[in-house]
């Protein structure tokens, strides 16, 4: 048989490790890999034609399953189109195993079709790179080496910090078995098991923490992007009761538990001095808005700790003041903190944050009846299902509105591609996450991000549990709110990405129910049934005016500047 050697063993080893899903981009050079995957009965395969969309679709699958997902493409520029998803997976720490089919080494740089330099094509955005030989060399050493690569690739993707890996696979013709010929049966494949023990607090670490807490009277905890974790939520609730203010973005999944209005509180710079901590403790990843980073960076006198059980080699220092990095499980650390006693001055500090939060909460709960995006987000928030749903919010302006409006009800998990914060692939990620998901998956996305990624709907995997809320303000509305950008004469022509498209035809092509909303009455009528069960996915396009939105947001922000 001429079928490339070692491929069925590669896929079988990954399957034995528990890899259950694969996204395959159609092609010729990768056909043998496709056959090895699709004929493995333990793996569910999806065929996605657009490689960029496929990458984010796989990302969504991995976010939902919490397991590595295989991503497979043909040779040439196909792999380059997966680079945005690889970067997002790297910084969001999502495990992907990317199999890139390649031309034989001797044809690289020889003007052969679909041939580029694929080795380490994702650079530092892949945790590891492997080259996998398919030559018909059945020596014991070659079989051992291939098996080692398969095991290494899985554990590299799965071990914390999780992330994407690339296996580049040069393949010679012929690619296909002869008509009616079965694939080779996988030879016995060795699965290498690792046992990963959690890092816990030793006596010396506990002593240091206790000593520093005892001399601190203004302790604040900040939580960046974090997947929903009941143990974290419980520990944060206990800390808040003990008088430790915890500041969290909407994407930290602590709505209703921590203070989530920090961006509006800190809009009043007159309050910065009184709210500055003497000890700042951070866990999770990035914040959406920069104001809290500016606030904390402006304090050169604080002590700063970072809780990160699995840091990369390069130190992350987003607040420009980290002094101690604790490679400790976040739950273990927070539970240890809950056991400690805090000073009376700490209670006074907590009350300052609580009072500021109450003032902001009163102002932002005022009903907005004018037709603008603030009011639209407010009304959507009031009609979200209380449970059995998750939110996938796109980048740029949409994710910021979740912080400015008290949007997310307690219990709903929020996902966002904030690893690189790009607009590409936000919808594809949601479609991927909706696969086999018992929850309603709600995608909230702007018009530019939607049209940039509408190939997310160019497949046969758009499930009926998907709800897309498309905010159409005819362009990149965020630029009308950015100081420096909003007054440039080039704003409309070169920055705002003005567009006049609607999503009706895209929805029809994808077999999705389409609703077009242009005012409050239409919105409220649509929301009565939008989140209910239906036989098809649903897309609600909400049309508003970018200039009116910007003016309303400026007026709204002025309420909090003091």
TrEMBL record:
Binds 1 thiamine pyrophosphate per subunit. Its EC number is 2.2.1.9. It is an enzyme of class 2 (transferase). The keyword Manganese applies. InterPro entries: MenaQ_synth_MenD, MenD_middle, Rhodanese-like_dom, THDP-binding, Thiamin_PyroP_enz_TPP-bd_dom, TPP_enzyme_TPP-bd. Keywords: Magnesium, Manganese, Menaquinone biosynthesis, Metal-binding, Thiamine pyrophosphate, Transferase. Residues 26-107 form the Rhodanese domain. Pfam families: TPP_enzyme_C, TPP_enzyme_M_2, TPP_enzyme_N. Pathway: Quinol/quinone metabolism; 1,4-dihydroxy-2-naphthoate biosynthesis; 1,4-dihydroxy-2-naphthoate from chorismate: step 2/7; Quinol/quinone metabolism; menaquinone biosynthesis. GO terms for molecular function: 2-succinyl-5-enolpyruvyl-6-hydroxy-3-cyclohexene-1-carboxylic-acid synthase activity. The keyword Cell inner membrane does not apply. It catalyses: isochorismate + 2-oxoglutarate + H(+) = 5-enolpyruvoyl-6-hydroxy-2-succinyl-cyclohex-3-ene-1-carboxylate + CO2. Its cofactor is Mg(2+); Mn(2+); thiamine diphosphate. SUPFAM superfamilies: Thiamin diphosphate-binding fold (THDP-binding). Catalyzes the thiamine diphosphate-dependent decarboxylation of 2-oxoglutarate and the subsequent addition of the resulting succinic semialdehyde-thiamine pyrophosphate anion to isochorismate to yield 2-succinyl-5-enolpyruvyl-6-hydroxy-3-cyclohexene-1-carboxylate (SEPHCHC). Homodimer. Belongs to the TPP enzyme family. MenD subfamily. This is 2-succinyl-5-enolpyruvyl-6-hydroxy-3-cyclohexene-1-carboxylate synthase.
